[in-house]
Design brief:
By secondary structure, this protein is an alpha/beta fold. The chain is built from ten helices and 15 strands. The strands form three sheets. Strands 3, 4, 5, 6, 7, 14 and 15 form a seven-stranded mixed beta sheet that branches. Strands 10-9-8-11-12-13 form a six-stranded parallel beta sheet, with helices on both faces.
Length: 324
């Protein structure tokens, strides 16, 4: 099968299209014929091996343990391994796995769900990592409630576009922050208000929010807290930039250390493996029309390096998807 592989950490140039063996599903695993695969910042981190702390977490100190890149996946079940009970060959599924930038990929049964009936494979592949992160940030970490005022920083990005829609679905009043060029997009997905960060500082203290979801990662925690109500919640999602050792996660560590000593609830969330129950929640919202994946561009498998370069330019609206 064709797959995008790498044998060393580095820039997109380390990725190459190569013929490799088709994976065999193990116990509790499903073999998927991949129709589409999402691209997000996590893919870049695993490709680059940055920050260095990532390598120490089991991904490979000197070279990536998993040669094939890609996490988000949507496709059709080709075969199932022992003990798989929820799927059978022919089922259309979506979820996450290691190595989705390939014609075939194996995924854990618990990391998959039936694909929403009202969207295609490309749209489905945009969902798992980013939407599950947004769901956990709002529902689990943020404890969002009906009627609350929610501020989403980075509202036009992969996590941000889902966060705006999910917050609205949970009954919140949503303010999205993005560039002026992307304001119409953020407004079209349900934001009640849209602020252009080039002209308005959402953390100047003139507005107060019950919940702030920061996916942009470039504002000091002290400024973010100025925009919270007295008992408000701040959730920092991921972290870009920063040093080589822990990257942009300094703020995450900071809020975890600070939280016990202040009146605000301060939480940090990294993208993580999700359970099929989270995908099922998203499926219901997508099929009800409350959430719609935003796909900026699609690329063929051979152009994954170009897709990652475009991602890192910072102009993406929603998600990038690889089509097979």
């Amino acid at each position: 099968m064709k797959a995008i592989v790498q044998d060393t950490y580095g820039p997109p140039a380390v990725l190459r299209l190569e013929e490799t063996d088709r994976p065999v599903p193990g116990r509790g695993e499903v073999l998927i014929r991949v129709h589409a695969a999402g691209v997000d910042q996590g893919v870049w981190h695993l490709m680059a091996g940055m920050p260095y702390a990532l390598r120490a977490m089991g991904f490979g100190l000197r070279a990536p343990k998993v040669r094939v890149r890609g996490m988000d996946v949507a496709g059709q079940v080709e075969a199932v391994g022992p003990d798989v009970t929820r799927f059978q060959p022919g089922d259309e599924v979506y979820g996450s796995c290691d190595g989705s930038f390939a014609e075939y990929a194996c995924a854990k049964e618990d990391a998959l769900a039936p694909k929403p009936r009202n969207i295609g494979f490309a749209e489905a592949a945009a969902v798992p990592v980013s939407a599950c992160t947004a769901l956990k940030a709002l529902r689990d970490s943020g404890r969002v409630e009906t009627g609350q005022r929610v501020l989403v920083l980075g509202a036009s990005g992969g996590v941000g576009t889902f966060a705006v829609q999910l917050a609205k679905a949970f009954g919140a009043h949503v303010t999205g922050v993005c560039s002026g060029a992307k304001a119409d997009l953020v407004r079209s997905i349900g934001a009640d208000e849209v602020l252009d960060y080039a002209h308005t500082d959402p953390t100047d203290g003139s507005r107060r929010y019950d919940l702030i979801l920061d996916t942009a990662g470039n504002r000091p925690v002290s400024r973010l807290r100025r925009a919270l109500t007295a008992r408000g919640t701040l959730v920092i999602v991921g972290g870009e930039g920063g040093g080589r050792w822990i990257g942009g996660n300094e703020r995450q560590l900071g809020v975890l250390l600070m939280s016990p000593f202040v009146g605000h609830r301060l939480r940090a969330l990294a993208a993580m493996e999700h359970h099929h129950s989270d995908l099922q929640v998203l499926t219901e919202l997508i099929e009800a029309g409350s959430v719609t994946p935003v796909v900026d561009r699609t690329y063929p498998l051979a152009e994954v390096p170009d897709a990652i370069r475009y991602l890192r330019e910072g102009h993406v609206r929603g998600k990038i998807v690889i089509r097979l």
